[in-house]
Amino acid sequence: MKYIIGNWKMNLGIRESVALARGVIRITRGKEGLPEIIICPAFTALSEVKKTLAHSRVSLGAQNCGVEKSGAFTGEISAGMLLDAECKYALVGHSERRHIFGESNEIVRKRLEAMSKTKLIPVLCVGEPKSERDAGNEENYVTDQLKSALDGLSLNKKKPLFIAYEPVWAIGAKEPASIAEMINLQAFIRLVAKKITDLPDTSIKILYGGSVDSENAYSFLREGEVDGVLVGGASLSINKFEGIIKAASDVIVAQQ
Ligand code: PGA
């Protein structure tokens, strides 16, 4: 199976989100061999988008997950609230949260801990900034992120753990990572995650994210070990998102 996650970031009001969600459903209607599709609208649009997705094959995800269950935590949305809004997935540790809003490895860990006690499926994002890549330090950097997020965390073996490798320098950039860079790091991440978590192979899903579009999606997705892609900008364009879904379907058929 391949997974396509659309991260809409801080874009689209409720009406526009519902319209885009309808477009995504239209793309999937009556098609065989589709990837699993997950869309992550802004918090304000979650419940209307959920209604739109009812009886479709598209799942709902959130862009972050609060640490505490409830209480005086202004601006936070808890895992329980996300489940109440019928989210199935939530991103955690996205590079924009880490680098723009200063979310540390420790906070990311706490968010994951909060999710691990619930049915929410986490999509942990990791990836090195340009300076670390230039210094040849990407593996150490990502290992620190993974260790701090996952070491000793009690994880449900039956629930998948998604890890998106998103090099910071490739997000919203002109160029994605090269296929070779992506293959090396995703294999490395899978190895480290397996060692740290002791999860069965099939529970760890590794995605690539960073300037994925309809032109390059096939090349990323055809790499056997890559479970899918996390898409930002291109997920806001129905034509580009359709191209990415089609690329995933073509890969699924080719690999059957
Ligand atoms: P991008 O964003 O596809 O626009 O590079 C990816 C992401 O931030 O998850």
TrEMBL record:
Residues bound to substrate are 7-9, 172, 211, 232-233
Could you say which protein family the record assigns here?
Belongs to the triosephosphate isomerase family.
Gene source species:
Candidatus Uhrbacteria bacterium CG_4_9_14_0_2_um_filter_41_50
Q: What is its EC number?
A: 5.3.1.1
Give the function comment from the record: Involved in the gluconeogenesis. Catalyzes stereospecifically the conversion of dihydroxyacetone phosphate (DHAP) to D-glyceraldehyde-3-phosphate (G3P).
Key word Cytoplasm present: yes
The UniProt keywords, alphabetically, are:
Cytoplasm, Gluconeogenesis, Glycolysis, Isomerase
**Any idea what this protein is called?**
Triosephosphate isomerase
Give me any GO biological process, just one: glyceraldehyde-3-phosphate biosynthetic process
Q: Which reaction does it catalyse?
A: D-glyceraldehyde 3-phosphate = dihydroxyacetone phosphate
Give the enzyme class: isomerase
NCBIfam families with a match to the protein in the record: tim
Q: Which GO terms describe its cellular component?
A: cytosol
Q: Which Gene3D superfamilies match?
A: Aldolase class I (3.20.20.70)
* Recorded metabolic or biological pathway in which this protein acts: Carbohydrate biosynthesis; gluconeogenesis; Carbohydrate degradation; glycolysis; D-glyceraldehyde 3-phosphate from glycerone phosphate: step 1/1
Which PANTHER family does the entry mention? Answer: TRIOSEPHOSPHATE ISOMERASE (PTHR21139)
Is Cytoplasm tagged as a keyword? yes
